[in-house]
C-alpha cells in the first residue's frame, strides 16, 4: 500500500482594508471583518484536513496573522508585495526551503464553507498529477492550484484563471462533491450560497452578530 501524499497548503490573505470589494453592497463597512472571518474559517478547515501537514498563511495583516497562528498555522509576511501570484510563490518557496520536494497546494482565503473531507478529496485527486487545479463555482476562476513533489510551482491566478491554468497545461480536476472547495465568496449571492452550504464558526458568528440579511 502506498502512503497518501501529504501537502503544505499556502493561503494568501490580502490586507482586509483592500479586500472583498465586491461584497461592499451587502456588508458595507464590515467588509474587512468578513474577509478575516472567511480567512480564519478557511485556515481552520485546512488544518482539520488529514492529508494536510502544514498551513502557511501569506499576509501583511496583523489580525489575520494572529488568528491564523492561534489556530495552528504558520504565517509569513507578504514580502514580495507584488500581488497574488507573487505572494503564493513566496509561500511555496518557504514550504520548499524546509523540504525541497514538498507537495504544495494553494487555497483561496475566501472559502468559509470549506469542509475538510472535501478538501481531502481534492488533494487525493491532485496527488495523481504533477500540477493540477480546481475551478471555482462560477467556472471562471480557480480556488486551488497544486504542484506535487518536484513540480514547478507557477500559479496563474487573476481574472479568468481557469482558462489560464488550462492553457499552461495544468490538469483540471474533474470532481463531483467538492462544492465547498469551489465556493469562493466574492459577492452577496456567493455569501448566500455559502451560508446555504454551511459556513464555519467565525463567519456564522459574524452573520449572527450583524444580522446580515441575505
Ligand atoms: N497575500 C496576498 N493575498 C492576496 C493578494 N491579492 C489577493 N490575495 C488573496 O487572493 C484571494 C483572491 O483574491 P481576489 O479575488 O483578488 O480579491 P478579494 O479581496 O478576494 O476580492 P475583491 O476585492 O472583490 O477582488 C483571496 O484569498 C485574497 O485574500 C495579495 O496581493 N497578497
Ligand atoms: C483571483 C481569482 O479569484 P477571484 O474569483 O476571487 O477573483 C482567480 O480565480 O484567479
TrEMBL record:
It is an enzyme of class 2 (transferase). The keyword GTP-binding applies. Keywords: GTP-binding, Nucleotide-binding, Nucleotidyltransferase, Transferase. Its EC number is 2.7.7.105. Phosphoenolpyruvate binds at residues 142, 158, 161. It catalyses: phosphoenolpyruvate + GTP + H(+) = enolpyruvoyl-2-diphospho-5'-guanosine + diphosphate. One of its GO terms (biological process) is F420-0 metabolic process. Signal peptide: none annotated. It comes from the Bacteria. It holds the Pfam family CofC. Pathway: Cofactor biosynthesis; coenzyme F420 biosynthesis. GO terms for molecular function: GTP binding; phospholactate guanylyltransferase activity. Guanylyltransferase that catalyzes the activation of phosphoenolpyruvate (PEP) as enolpyruvoyl-2-diphospho-5'-guanosine, via the condensation of PEP with GTP. It is involved in the biosynthesis of coenzyme F420, a hydride carrier cofactor. NCBIfam families: F420_cofC. HAMAP family: CofC (MF_02114). Belongs to the CofC family. This is Phosphoenolpyruvate guanylyltransferase. It comes from Jiangella alba. The gene is fbiD.
